[in-house]
């Protein structure tokens, strides 16, 4: 299937590693020109070098920190300078510290809200006008399966990412007639460095070995394995494609069947 992404300009947040890196690679493989961003210029440069060596779409990067007050304004301008515009925005953020809901530290909540919710909405507001004027645009926000089935010991993530679900659906209804789709993509247990970090955190919290924690996680997944980043990125590439133009306001799971609800 031709996804119709050749020459499209995509900005992918938090793409120095993990899911963001995988999505940037998938879009470039389909011919899109991608702008990666993150805090590690070394990792970003290496990612861009690898993407550019493969041909198809081109990659560039900008070093940016979600915690910076001017993140959205700076990144938007950088995208205009380097890409000439934005056709596709992939909102992706790192996860907050693990922990429960009882006694949640509101100062940490405020700081994480700024990075995971405020910056996403601010940046999206900045890219939308040109998409609506062009009559074509894609907004894809990566969240977590915890917004459907809350994940134990990830109360902050469950809370903040759920706020984006209501925002995304509301926005989708407002811009659908302008040719702009707005969707959310929820990873389950996709094997990344972040997954390893969470398994380690759960090991320390429960006193179980990391192997025991992973075995328990695998037992709860009908597919009986962690997902691969490329599998997840392929779903993302489709959702921002031309053929997916009638999919909007949706929350799509890529979780090996882990979420039990319909």
From TrEMBL:
GO molecular function terms listed in the Swiss-Prot or TrEMBL record: 3-oxoacyl-[acyl-carrier-protein] reductase (NADPH) activity
EC number(s) recorded for this UniProt protein: 1.1.1.100
This protein's record includes keyword Oxidoreductase: yes
Keyword Oxidoreductase set for record: yes
Recorded superkingdom: Bacteria
Pfam families named in the record: adh_short_C2
Coiled coil: none
UniProt keyword terms in alphabetical order: Oxidoreductase
Enzyme class: oxidoreductase
Family per similarity comment: Belongs to the short-chain dehydrogenases/reductases (SDR) family.
Designated name of the protein: 3-oxoacyl-[acyl-carrier protein] reductase
């Amino acid at each position: 299937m031709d996804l119709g992404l050749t020459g499209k300009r995509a900005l992918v947040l938090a793409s120095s590693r993990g899911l963001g890196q995988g999505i940037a690679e998938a879009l470039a493989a389909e011919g899109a020109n991608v702008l990666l961003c993150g805090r590690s210029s070394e990792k970003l440069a290496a990612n861009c070098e690898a993407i550019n060596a493969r041909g198809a779409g081109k990659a560039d990067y900008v070093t940016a920190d979600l915690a910076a007050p001017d993140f959205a304004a700076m990144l938007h301008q950088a995208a205009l300078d380097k890409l000439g515009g934005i056709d596709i925005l992939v909102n992706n953020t790192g996860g907050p510290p693990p922990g429960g809901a009882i006694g949640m530290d509101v100062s940490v909540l405020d700081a994480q809200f700024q990075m995971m919710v405020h910056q996403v909405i601010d940046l999206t507001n900045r890219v939308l006008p040109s998409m609506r004027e062009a009559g074509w645009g894609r907004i894809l926000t990566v969240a977590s399966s915890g917004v459907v089935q809350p994940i134990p010991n990830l109360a902050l993530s469950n809370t903040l990412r759920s706020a984006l679900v209501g925002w995304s659906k509301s926005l989708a209804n407002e811009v659908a007639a302008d040719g702009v789709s707005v969707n959310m993509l929820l990873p389950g247990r996709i094997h990344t460095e972040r997954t390893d970090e969470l398994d380690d955190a759960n090991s320390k919290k429960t006193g179980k070995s990391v192997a025991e924690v992973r075995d328990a996680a695998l037992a709860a997944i009908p597919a009986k394995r962690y997902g691969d980043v490329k599998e997840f990125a392929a779903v993302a590439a489709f959702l921002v494609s031309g053929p997916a133009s009638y999919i909007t306001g949706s929350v799509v799971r890529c979780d090996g069947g882990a979420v039990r609800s319909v």
